[in-house]
Each structure stands twice: as C-alpha cells, then as structure tokens.
Amino acid sequence: MTLGQITEIIAMFALARLLTSWRLKWIFIAGLSFGVMRYALCALDGKAWILGGITLHGCSFTLMFITAQIYVDERMDTAWRARAQALLTLMMSGVGNLIGYLGTGWWFAANTRATATQWPRFWGGLAAAVAVVLIYFLIAYHGRGKKNQPAMNLARQGNQT
C-alpha cells in the first residue's frame, strides 16, 4: 500500500504540470488507462506483477478522482459549484462505492470455489470492466472545445462593450 501512496503523491505533483499542458479529457484517459494496466498486472498473478498493479493505484486514483473534482470546479457556475461538488462526492464516495462494493463482491463470489479463488479471472474481469469504461469515455466524451471557454468569452465580451 505504501507503493500506491508514494505514486499517488508523485501523481499529485505531476498533475499540476499535466493540467497546464494537457486537456482534461486526456488526463481522464490516462487515469483510466492506468486503471486497466493496474488490474491487468494483478491478473498476471505473480508477486512482482501484483506489486506493480498496487503501484499504479496512486496514478489511477489521482488522475481520475482528483481531476474529476477539478473538472467540476472549472465547469460549474459559481452558484452551483458547492452543490455539484457535493453530488460528485455522493456519487463517488457514496453511491459509487456501494455499487462498486456490491458488484465487486458479486464478481469475487463468482470467481471463488470451495478450494480457491481464481485471481487471474477476477482481476482480468475488473481490467475488462475498466477497459469498457475507457472505450465508452473515448467515444462519448467530446468536451466543450476551445471556443466554448466561458471565462475567456466573458472577458472578451466585457472588453467589447
């Protein structure tokens, strides 16, 4: 777990640089990709592979969850920002965790036999699930584009009047 925490701290420092050079879409894609790699490494079912998967947890977590909070903060109007952050927290830490725990618990039970757990199948299934989310995100998310930057547009409109 310490390896995951160390990479999480490194990813937080790196996130500051990424936010200035990458669009949020690509940061989310990187976070989801690290998630796929994390579970895929665990599916290889070797001590070194599992440690590698644990190490990628910090990158995946930071690039997804911290960036999601920044995304909401940037995209929401000031009047709605606190409510949007509360809804995001409820969805990620409340309902999202509950659904995740129930789904993962069901998947774990499906991969457990009387004698052993089929760990490669368990982790491979989680890697496949995150890969499906990544593919959906690549197809469905379009962002708002450069021309729809509200803060910049408002500043330009203010200068024109």
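Above is the first protein from milestone M3; the second protein from the same milestone is given next.
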Amino acid sequence: MKDITQIVVPVDLAEHTEKIIAYAAAGAEKFSAKLHVVHVVELLPTLGELELGTTTMDSFNKKRMEQSKDFLHKFLLGYPECIGKIVSGVIVDEITSYAKSVEADLIIIGTHGTKGLEKLLLGSVAERVVKNAHCPTLVMNPYKQAAG
C-alpha cells in the first residue's frame, strides 16, 4: 500500500467546514501527511459592462474570491501547517485537478446527504469527485460526525 503523504480536503465554507477540517487534520497527523484545504468559487459569467444595480459581475466575483479567502483563513487559524487554497472554476474539475497537481494520495470530502429531487437536479459533488479522482477518496458525513 502506498504511503499517504498528501491529503486534499475540499470545503464549501459552510457550517460543517470546521468538523471536516478537524477530521482531516487528525488523519493527516496520524499519517504525518501534508494537509491541503481547497475551496472552489464558481464565478458568475461576466457580461462585459452589463451592470446589475451598481456592481458589475467582475467586481462581484472579485468580492466573492476575497470573502472566500477571509473565511478560509479564519477556519485554518488553528492549523498552521495546513495549506489553504482558493481557486475558481467548475467545482469538481478544480478539486480533482488540484489533487492531481499536488500528487494527493487521499481526498477527504464531506457530503450534504442530499436525496431525491435535490440530488437529481444538483448532483453530488462528493459523488462526482469519487468518480473522477485519481486517488482514493474518503467521504464523510459531517452531520453525523461527533464534534471534537
């Protein structure tokens, strides 16, 4: 079995992000692995100079990127050895691409546990990452994961 030296953890910066990072950090510590936490911002398409109110789509996208950086920084304050990365693009493509670029040996991803019509319409990011990743992927349910 190949040693696990690089772990990638995609996060959505929602309510359970802290649990997912803590879980992954514990695993990284056990394996003496480097932990990479990545958040993907899907940018809204820019339409030239078309304005919505007083904000252009470009400035709106820039603001979303800056806010994401701030949020991720706050989540990672307790993990100084962790690498935090904000990227933009198609979520699943960017997660799998980033994991491949850092030669990840494992991806740890949370799931929202959507069912029925919501899953049919939106799909599952975790499921698509599992199908497209070059390395093993561990899916955790942060809604069931005990804190601390």
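Note on the second protein: The chain is about 40% helix and 20% strand.
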